[in-house]
Write a structure and sequence with these properties.
binds iron/sulfur cluster; alpha+beta; 17% strand; 281 residues; 8 strands; two-stranded antiparallel sheet; 8 helices; four-stranded antiparallel beta sheet
């Protein structure tokens, strides 16, 4: 299947980000994280998504409206808009005679929820790490904040995946860093949730990311939201002050392709600098 033809269709169906990894790029992953555990005939992994519009973050930035992000940046965006785009692309692939397995973005850290049904097979439900897959598909990098960054939007997107048995030429893995800094990034969390840093390597792409105390993020009042799928999943931090500050930095320094006439951060962001008593002890 021709990648540019598929990419053009995906863009017409609303996709703002799109990339393809061949299955060989997942060789280093264990069966419980491997696409072929879900669909053994997978030859290509398509990662696609839609932007979170910058204005959707405005109410959180000002501390005056959080539900706008909850709907347009999270629930409706993922469950309706991205899902519709993903499904249309899956239909396009199946119209061409290939099987297409659409996958919603569920937390990979959730423990198995069943028993193994066949020898040498992990128990259900096998969840892929979507940010990891996005790097393998050339869409972006894992930023210091621990979230996916893309050249066009930084951290502002929601992604889903299609597994297919169609052979598609893979997208090149991004080699230029989007966010090259790490020294200033250590101070992005006002609650001290960045407790160290670690080196990540995905398909040979090296990235330095913060080690994060997610217990603090789970109680963060600075725009973070609990994981909406499972209590064991990582909190949603795309609207949190750490990630918004990262996005503002990237925009101010010309690192993102989606340009605006005015800066995102116009005044000090609304923040709660103290966490709950448990963490102050
Ligand atoms: S979500 Fe909150 S606690 Fe977690 S790193 Fe961001 S600002 Fe800090």
């Amino acid at each position: 299947m021709d990648r540019s033809e598929l990419s053009d269709f995906a863009k017409g169906a609303g996709a703002d980000v799109f990339g393809v990894a061949d299955i060989g790029r997942f060789d280093e992953l264990p069966p419980e994280k491997h696409p072929q555990t879900i669909f053994p005939e997978t030859r290509s992994v398509i990662v696609l998504g839609r932007r979170i519009t910058r204005g959707t973050l405005r109410g959180v930035e000002e501390g005056t409206n959080f539900t706008d992000y909850a709907f347009y940046g999270c629930h409706w965006l993922d469950d309706r808009f991205v899902a519709m785009t993903t499904y249309r692309v899956a239909e396009f692939i199946e119209d061409a005679g290939w099987e297409a397995v659409p996958l919603p973005n569920l937390p990979p850290e959730v423990p198995p929820m069943g028993v193994t049904v066949r020898k040498n097979q992990p128990p259900p439900n096998v969840m892929l790490d979507f940010d990891d897959a996005a790097v393998r598909a050339g869409i972006g990098e894992i930023g210091y904040c621990g979230v996916l960054l893309t050249p066009r939007f930084g951290p502002r997107q929601r992604i889903q995946i299609i597994l297919t048995d169609a052979e598609i030429e893979p997208s090149p893995i991004l080699d230029e860093p989007i966010d090259p800094r790490s020294d200033q990034s250590k101070d992005l969390c006002p609650l001290g949730a960045f407790i160290g840093e670690k080196e990540l390597s995905i398909c040979g792409k090296a990235m330095t990311v913060a080690e994060i105390d997610y217990r603090k993020c789970a109680d963060c009042k600075n725009g973070a939201m609990p994981n909406r799928h499972h209590p064991a999943g990582k909190p949603d931090r795309l609207a949190a002050v750490c990630v918004r500050t990262c996005m503002d930095y990237l925009e101010r320094n010309g690192r993102l392709e989606n340009k605006f006439s005015a800066k995102f951060r116009k005044r000090d962001p609304w923040t709660v600098k103290e966490n709950i008593d448990f963490y102050k002890a």
